[in-house]
Structure formats: C-alpha cells, structure tokens
Amino acid sequence: MRGPAARRMLVGARLRGLRERAGLSRERAGYAIRGSASKISRMELGRTSFARRDIADLLTLYGLPGGAEREELLRLAREANERAWWHRHGELIPAWTHRFLDLEETAREVRAYEPCQIPELLQTEEYTRASLAIRDGIREGGRRIEIDERAAVRRLRRRLFADDPGRTLTAVLDEAALRRHVGGPELIRDQLAHLAALAGTGRVELRIVPVGGRALPLPHGFSILSFAGGALPDVVYLEFLTTALYLDKPADVTAYAGAWDRLAAAALPPDAGRDLITDLLKRL
Questions:
Q1: Cβ distance 112 to 171 under 8 Å?
Q2: Global pTM exceeds 0.85
Q3: 4-80 under CATH 1.10.260.40, yes or no
C-alpha cells in the first residue's frame, strides 16, 4: 500500500481490530503507552505518526509479543512515518491537501464531480497553470515559483495515475466547465482534445451533465476514493478555498455515494459525452 497516510489508516485499523479482539478499552490502551484514550483514537484513525515503542507496547498488550504479524505491523508503522513523494513541494502546496495526495495515490478507483473546472487528473499542463492563476490569484511574475511548484505536483499526480494500469477514474462534470474558455480558445481546444483521447483509454470514463438538464443535487465538487480489497474505508474529499474535509463515516460516505449516483444519472452516457466533446472541438 502506497502513501504514508494510507499506511497510517491501515495500521490504525489493524490496531483497533486487535484492541477490540483483546477486549480492551481505549483508556486501558492509552495508559499502557503513557498516553490517553484520545491518543489511541488518533492512532486508530491514522491521524498521527507512530512511535515504534508505542506500537511495540500495544502489540504486546494485545497479545502479539512476537511472530510474523507483529513484525509486519512494525514494518508498516515504520513505512507510515516515511516522507511522501510530494514532500519536497510541501511548503508551496496547501497543508490540507497533503493527506489527499497520499490517499489518491493509493486509491484503486476515484469518482470525481466537478461543476466548474476540468478534474485535476485530466488537465493539460497549460490548463493547470491557467486555473491556478485564476483560483489563487497568482499572476505571472508575482509568484511564478508557486505556480511552477503546484503545477509540478499536479504533473506528478497525472504521471502516477498514468503509470498504474490498475487505477480508474470516473468523472462527472458540468458541460459549462467544457465551455468555459480558461486561458483562451487555443488552450481549451487542446484540453478538449486531451479529454477525448483519455476517454478512449478504458481507464477514464467521462460523464457530462448537459446544460439545460435537470437540477443537480450538489453545487460543489467532491471526490470519492475507494481502495483495493476493502482494506480501507471509502473516503470523501471536499476541498474549499482555505481548507478541506475528509469524510469516512459510513453515513457521510453513503450520502455522497447517493449524490454521485444521482449526478451520474443526470449525465449523458459516455458515448454521447464523447460526441459532445467532438462537437465542441469543431466549433472552436
């Protein structure tokens, strides 16, 4: 499993399972590692780094003083503390996106809804730079290095997706996002051609909600990340201008999965979506 955040979630889930199997409370486990119930909760949710001594003491408390499973968990905990691929860009990308970058890399299936722009994994380099300038008010010559660094991160995300044939992306986007001339007609022409090429790969499915269609259930974009084998729960990611939300409670995930189904139902079939992109290209 890739990505420190995903590894922390996996280790945390395994620790929670062992604790519950041993019939121990979070308070008892926290006392054993000189901590508190809230620390155990953070560890089990994968929201903190792991000290080797803490993991070793908990495994002993949970009835794993030795053996292959103990060694595997100690290894996973060590790997969960390693730096992620995006670390060298970390100062210039928003802190609230760091966990998402790890989880996205690990996810086998991504379902993304975007009402205003092309999904980031499907953007061309030029579209990425133009959208960064618009959203964040970054202008050429003022904070050029910030555009370069953020664009580099998106480029690496696209490369990671392209290099892993086991990953898929289904994107629902509003037709208005295709018609919005971010960066000018020439740029959007290249972007639409790029979308048309990706839609024919078998790993990317585009579902376009036509202008004038029925009302949509949500005004904001979101992504649902699903992981292989059910090792981790689905995670819903919502990004705003200055923060982000990560939702993994079953009720929240179910609500967004339902919204996703309604969005997909409102969209054109994939073949009709590709025809729409072709038609838009002819008009440019």
A1: yes
A2: no
A3: yes
